[in-house]
């Protein structure tokens, strides 16, 4: 048996759905077919509210492995339940995907190649590896994401080069988790529901002595938010009012956490007022955005967690 086939047999993918379109469904079905050939598996976790028989959405019934809630319980719970399901079925490594993420043709080869290298040359790494991550291209902003590195009192946003780089955190979609370390690091924080879930998990892994490596030859297209806002010729990430609620609420929760570096907290505090002004002045339905942000701030201050009522 080849090394690739051996890896695939302990290799699963979790795909989180929320009202997926045909493109997302077809991609997940293709992925399922590829994994089944090699003995691995794909589990779809569906946060879509509409359900059919046996509490399953019509979409989820098309997959061999699926989890359906009948309501939106948030990205963190979906990831946690999907990872637990994969572990129960023998997974030792697990990919995480949002429904709108599209790996390129070399993605899986490059990520598994990096995994094999880590397994073979583990003693070369000063820190155990929590996860591998690709370089993502945001289709809304039309640019590649930066590699975030926190070093002491400084935070760097580096452009991906041609060699493996460490990162303090990455987006969850496309990440490849080493499940032998997952229990020690801990689950994704379900109290956050959606925003900052990936950042929180990465920083928690850092604080426990683990490292995240970015694989520059693994590429992923991803869609952050909705149509961006143009402010003085600069495109700014935009979201729905409900997402702005979670952003402003959860950033306040993040500021309280002892394992979150001070430089990250300072940077987020500096950006809070400009972001509030931009989303108040340049979005459609501005009153909805303002109300959501103010409620998020208040709920953050009063320590409200979980799903917004």
Topology, please?
Elements: H1 3-9, E1 11-17, H2 22-38, E2 41-46, E3 65-68, H3 75-88, E4 93-98, E5 102-103, H4 107-120, E6 129-138, E7 143-144, E8 147-151, E9 154-158, E10 165-167, E11 176-178, H5 179-185, H6 197-207, E12 211-222, E13 226-231, E14 234-238, H7 241-255, H8 262-281, H9 286-301
Parallel strand pairs: 1-2, 1-4, 2-3, 6-12
Antiparallel strand pairs: 4-11, 5-12, 6-7, 6-11, 8-9, 10-12, 13-14
Task: Give short descriptive properties of this protein.
two-stranded antiparallel sheet, globular, alpha/beta, 14 strands, Spore Coat Polysaccharide Biosynthesis Protein SpsA, Chain A, single chain, 2 domains, ten-stranded mixed beta sheet, 309 residues
CATH class of the largest domain: Alpha Beta
The proportion of residues in beta strands is 15-25%
What is the CATH homology-level superfamily of the largest domain? Spore Coat Polysaccharide Biosynthesis Protein SpsA, Chain A
Rg estimate, integer Å: 19 Å
> SSE order, as H and E?
HEHEEHEEHEEEEEEHHEEEHHH
CATH topology of the largest domain: Spore Coat Polysaccharide Biosynthesis Protein SpsA, Chain A
What gap, in angstroms, lies between the N and C termini? 52 Å
Give the count of helical stretches: 9
Number of strands: 14
The helical percent reads 25-40%
The biggest sheet amounts to: 10 strands, mixed
Average pLDDT rating: 91
Low-confidence stretches: none
What shape does the CA trace take? Answer: globular
SSE class: alpha/beta
Protein name: Glycosyltransferase family 2 protein
GO molecular function: glycosyltransferase activity
Keywords: Glycosyltransferase, Transferase
InterPro entries: Nucleotide-diphossugar_trans (IPR029044)
């Amino acid at each position: 048996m080849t090394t690739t086939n051996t890896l695939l047999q302990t290799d699963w993918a979790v795909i989180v759905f929320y009202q997926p379109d045909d493109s997302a469904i077809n991609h997940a079905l293709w992925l399922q077919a590829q994994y089944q050939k090699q003995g691995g598996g794909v589990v779809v976790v569906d946060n879509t509210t509409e359900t059919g028989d046996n509490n399953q959405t019509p979409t989820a019934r098309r997959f061999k492995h699926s989890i359906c809630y009948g309501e939106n319980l948030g990205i963190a719970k979906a990831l946690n339940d999907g990872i637990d399901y994969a572990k129960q079925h023998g997974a030792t490594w697990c990919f995480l995907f949002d429904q709108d993420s599209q790996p390129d043709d070399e993605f899986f080869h490059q990520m598994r190649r990096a995994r094999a290298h880590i397994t073979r040359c583990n003693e070369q790494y000063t820190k155990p590896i929590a996860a591998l991550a690709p370089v993502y291209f945001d289709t809304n902003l039309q640019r590649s994401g930066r590699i975030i590195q926190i070093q002491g009192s400084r935070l760097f946003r580096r452009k991906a080069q041609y060699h493996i780089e460490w990162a303090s955190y990455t987006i969850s979609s496309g990440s490849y988790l080493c499940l032998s370390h997952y229990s020690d690091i801990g689950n994704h924080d379900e109290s956050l529901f959606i925003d900052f879930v990936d950042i929180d998990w990465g920083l928690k892994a850092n604080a426990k002595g683990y490292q995240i490596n970015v694989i520059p030859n693994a590429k992923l297209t991803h869609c952050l938010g909705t149509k961006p806002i143009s402010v003085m010729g600069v495109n700014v990430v935009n979201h729905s009012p409900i997402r702005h609620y979670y952003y402003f609420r959860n950033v306040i929760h993040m500021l309280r956490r002892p394992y979150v570096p001070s430089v990250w907290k300072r940077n987020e505090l500096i950006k809070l007022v400009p972001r509030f002004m931009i989303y108040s002045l340049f979005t459609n339905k501005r009153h909805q955005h303002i109300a959501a942000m103010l409620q998020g701030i208040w709920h953050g201050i009063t320590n409200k967690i979980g799903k917004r009522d």
